[in-house]
Amino acid sequence: MSVIIYFIKLLGKYVFERSDETLIKQVLKGKKAAWITLVKRYEKPLFNYALRMVNHREDALDLMQDVFVAIFRNLSSFRGDSPFKGWLFKIAHYRCIEFYRRKRPMQGLDDLPEQTGDIADTCPEYLMNSSQQSQKLHKALALLPINQKLVVEMKFFQHCTFDDIARQLGLSVNTVKSRLYSALDKLKGHLELEHEST
């Protein structure tokens, strides 16, 4: 491929790629192709988020589908005050919490036991593409309680600020920080144990 053709394709991607806001307007006018484009844009990050949160491929797919259905039904209520991606993941957080509540209806989120599932058992194709350190980190993340896992997910995978996390989860900034630091201590402990056993 010549340099000129490569440059034209690269430039075309940036010039002709439609913004989320443009796609949303088209979806609201009934354009199915715009909805498909929006889904394709966010399905991979949403699936990866769901997989990190629920540690099981089929549950992650169900959660992702549930989020897209909720978004489609409520798209007209999106005001555009904040980026669409933030709105999408806010819905994903709520759906994830609902998933855990359905799973353990008699327990609060803070009372949920640590997860014992291992991503290696549920999604080997994902781990085949990961480094050994990444595998260990995902295994350790699976052991965190949901309330701590949510904060780690938002801070390190979605790059949210403490204020954003607090606002989206309806918590104080101090509570968010406390959950994050507690989660990091647990992760450190799990990773040290893993290192000692190898």
From TrEMBL:
Keywords: Sigma factor, Transcription, Transcription regulation. SUPFAM superfamilies: Sigma2 domain of RNA polymerase sigma factors (SSF88946), Sigma3 and sigma4 domains of RNA polymerase sigma factors (SSF88659). Residues 38-104 form the RNA polymerase sigma-70 region domain. It comes from the Bacteria. Residues 135-187 form the RNA polymerase sigma factor 70 region 4 type domain. Belongs to the sigma-70 factor family. ECF subfamily. NCBIfam families: sigma70-ECF (TIGR02937). This is RNA polymerase sigma factor. It comes from Thalassotalea profundi. The lineage of its organism: Bacteria, Pseudomonadati, Pseudomonadota, Gammaproteobacteria, Alteromonadales.
